[in-house]
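Long-time lurker, first post. I've been practising inverse folding by hand and with some scripts of my own, and I keep getting stuck on stretches where the C-alpha cells seem ambiguous. Below is the full C-alpha cell string for one chain I'm working on. Before anyone asks, I'm not after the true native sequence, just a reasonable design that respects the backbone. If someone could post their per-position residues I'd love to compare against what I wrote down in my notebook.
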C-alpha cells in the first residue's frame, strides 16, 4: 500500500471511531418513528433570558407522583417548558397496553407549567416505564424515561 492510501484509510477509521464515541449530532435525540426510544435528550436547561436561535425549547426538572385507584394508577407529571419559534407537543405515555397517554400543546414563544396525567391499568403489573416526550418541528425528543412502581 502506498502512503496516500494508508492515510485515507487512517482518516476513515478516525471518523468512524469519532462517530461511535461521540454519538448522534443532537445528543440523546430519539428518532420520531421509534417505538421504544432509548436515549434521553440532555440539552435542556432553565433560567435563560430567551432561547437562542438554535434552541427549540427548554424544559425544567420533571417531578412525578403516583395516585392509585380501583385497579388503575395515575402518574402526575409536572414540569415547566419554554418554547422558541415553534410550538411543542408534550406527551406522557407508558410502555403498557393497558395505558392512556396524556398530551398538551405549548404555543410558540410561551412559558408554561405543564401537568400531565397518564394512567395505567394494574392488571397484575407492578412496574411500567414512563416516557415524557416533546415533539417540535416533526422531531420527537425523550425528556425523561423512568420505571414507575405501583406497589
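-- Answer (accepted) --
I ran through it position by position. Result:
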Amino acid at each position: 500500500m502506498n502512503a496516500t492510501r494508508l492515510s485515507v484509510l487512517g482518516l476513515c477509521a478516525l471518523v468512524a471511531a469519532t462517530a461511535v464515541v461521540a454519538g448522534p449530532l443532537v445528543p440523546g435525540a430519539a428518532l420520531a418513528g421509534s417505538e421504544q426510544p432509548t436515549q434521553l435528550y440532555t440539552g435542556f436547561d432553565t433560567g435563560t433570558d430567551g432561547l437562542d436561535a438554535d434552541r427549540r425549547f427548554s424544559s425544567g426538572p420533571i417531578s412525578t407522583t403516583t395516585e392509585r385507584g380501583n385497579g388503575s394508577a395515575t402518574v402526575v407529571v409536572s414540569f415547566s417548558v419554554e418554547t422558541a419559534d415553534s410550538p411543542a407537543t408534550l406527551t406522557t405515555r407508558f410502555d403498557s397496553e393497558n395505558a392512556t397517554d396524556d398530551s398538551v400543546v405549548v404555543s410558540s414563544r410561551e412559558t408554561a407549567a405543564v401537568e400531565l396525567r397518564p394512567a395505567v391499568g394494574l392488571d397484575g403489573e407492578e412496574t411500567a416505564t414512563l416516557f415524557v416526550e416533546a415533539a417540535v418541528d416533526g422531531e420527537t425528543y425523550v425528556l425523561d424515561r423512568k420505571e414507575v412502581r405501583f406497589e
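A couple of notes from the structure itself: The mean pLDDT is 73. The beta strands are 57-59, 63-68, 72-83, 88-94, 99-100, 102-106, 111-116, 119-121, 127-136, 139-149. Happy to go over any region you disagree with.
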